[in-house]
Amino acid sequence: MLLPGHSTQDFPETNARVVEAGRNSWPSQISLQYRSGGSWYHTCGGTLIRQNWVMTAAHCVDSSLTFHVVVGDHNLSQNDGTEQYVSVQKIVAHPYWNSNNVATGYDIALLRLAQSFTLNSYVQLGVLPQEGTILANNSPCYITGWGRTKTNGQLAQTLQQAYLPSVDYATCSSSSYWGSTVKNTMVCAGGDGICSGCQGDSGGPLHCLVNGRYSVHGVTSFVSSQGCNVSRKPTVFTRVSAYISWINNVIASN
């Protein structure tokens, strides 16, 4: 099941799945928002990778809505005083993305912004892995986002994080996990039946600790249709290290 956005502004529930992130602890996290009836609503996460480029999931931008990007945010329902807002000027989804078949992969898109964000202690560029990097099994990773705090629950108002150790491809593609649905261009993480991504987290980052620093190894893509936190159905991410050349080429040519 894809992790689409959610258009209602609800109040958070406490749940073992996630904890509130420390303010300003993930400064490359963005909120992708769409306009409806004069208001803006969070639909997906994303990562600031250049001052005027955001990386998110292709399925987040399938619809022809008007989008803007918010950086430096923590609580979506109030003004933190650190936010910056910029409209999306151009959307470049991966050419092989097929919205009718998420299992083929390629669930990645780049958003060129109308102007550059100002970097400061609340707004930083995400660090991307080297091309081809494969995480070791059980690498320490965190998913972050304003997604639902439980299956069929409500969107979080403050940025949440959940510890999701990576699951290697051999395990994740085995028959008792995801089987052939998962490709080697994806990253799996979690699957303990407690912590997971959920609707509204889509497009956001999977931050993994490699060689002493966090880098963005995944773009949140899908979970099981049985629910967000199903045992042996880890959250599935687009593997960023499989798309470094594509990312660089898109930015260079736009």
Automatic annotation (TrEMBL):
Residues 2-252 form the Peptidase S1 domain. Its EC number is 3.4.21.36. It is found in: Secreted. InterPro entries: Peptidase_S1_Elastase_sf, Peptidase_S1_PA, Peptidase_S1_PA_chymotrypsin, Peptidase_S1A, Trypsin_dom, TRYPSIN_HIS, TRYPSIN_SER. One of its GO terms (molecular function) is metal ion binding. The keyword Lipid metabolism does not apply. It holds the Pfam family Trypsin. It is an enzyme of class 3 (hydrolase). SUPFAM superfamilies: Trypsin-like serine proteases. This is Chymotrypsin-like elastase family member 1. It comes from Callithrix jacchus (White-tufted-ear marmoset). The gene is CELA1.
